[in-house]
Amino acid sequence: xxxxxxxxxxxxxxxxxxxxxxxxxxxxxxxxxxxxxxxxxxxxxxxxxxxxxxxxxxxxxxxxxxxxxxxxxxxxxxxxxxxxxxxxxxxxxxxxxxxxxxxxxxxxxxxxxxxxxxxxxxxxxxxxxxxxxxxxxxxxxxxxxxxxxxxxxxxxxxxxxxxxxxxxxxxxxxxxxxxxxxxxxxxxxxxxxxxxxxxxxxxxxxxxxxxxxxxxxxxxxxxxxxxxxxxxxxxxxxxxxxxxxxxxxxxxxxxxxxxxxxxxxxxxxxxxxxxxxxxxxxxxxxxxxxxxxxxxxxxxxxxxxxxxxxxxxxxxxxxxxxxxxxxxxxxxxxxxxxxxxxxxxxxxxxxxxxxxxxxxxxxxxxxxxxxxxxxxx
Length: 377
Fold this sequence. Notes:
Blueprint: E1 7-11, H1 15-27, E2 31-35, H2 38-47, E3 52-55, H3 64-73, E4 82-86, H4 91-99, E5 104-107, H5 112-172, H6 183-211, E6 219-221, H7 223-233, H8 235-240, E7 244-248, E8 256-258, H9 260-277, E9 283-290, E10 302-309, H10 316-319, H11 341-351, E11 356-360, E12 366-373
Parallel strand pairs: 1-2, 1-3, 3-4, 4-5, 7-9
Antiparallel strand pairs: 6-8, 9-10, 10-12, 11-12
Helix pairs in contact: 2-3, 5-6, 6-11, 9-11
């Protein structure tokens, strides 16, 4: 008996054949469905596509060849393997079976061992094909990620270092024992070093998250106080951008379980993105509320926190990939960054047992949200 639980559809207009094949395949562990004619078979297949079809040829109204042709013309069903099973023994009948898309042909009367062997052979081929397709998709995704990564590194890390090197070489051309460097130049160089270090740290941290080697320092956390601290520290940046931040966090909001440093980074990242990608004068609203359970008697388990703006919004297609690694928003080519900020936000929130997402439309602002578990006890 096979451990396979593949779904097989048997199509034959003879009830005895259907019964025999159904019992035989069920005993092998397969899930078996039956159809007495072509039309019923097609309706069954379109509702729930099987993994394989055993198809008789000589049937009234619609023969097996016609059923197979219709299946192969449909994108949703063309990859389902069809094994013809028929009393027709002429070579031309077999050739036609393969011409219309069949993958194998079994003659009646059939032997159980042969039927099982041919079915298992085709199912193995299908499994290998699916595995290969998945590997190809993963490889293409990896190659795409690598291309984006190399482009980002070459632009965002290499170019500033080249500029840094040029400044130093220009000073060294003076060939003096002591060289004066203006404090403004030193300040710019220091900021550049900080930016490069932040990018490198982001790369290292993203890899640590992928390896599952990040430990959270979980403690009871008051989101209201965290929001107040954020508003205070970001006041200079908000003033520079002529932006306003409204806090909408109830005083009686339950505490959450969280790593304050990492959640601070999430909020800072969302704030920085909102100011960077919107015009001056944008209004931001930081909210937090309890996620109510559908059943009122159940105790709430999570809190939803969101940062909403009334800015330019984001295209939904772009928004769908914002939290992936090396994904950067429109206009990001004008700024320094590897597209790791929102990816790290997602990893931090997921490490807390929460979820993160965005609700947005072009010209209708954006609402970034995430959930956190309520402190128990």
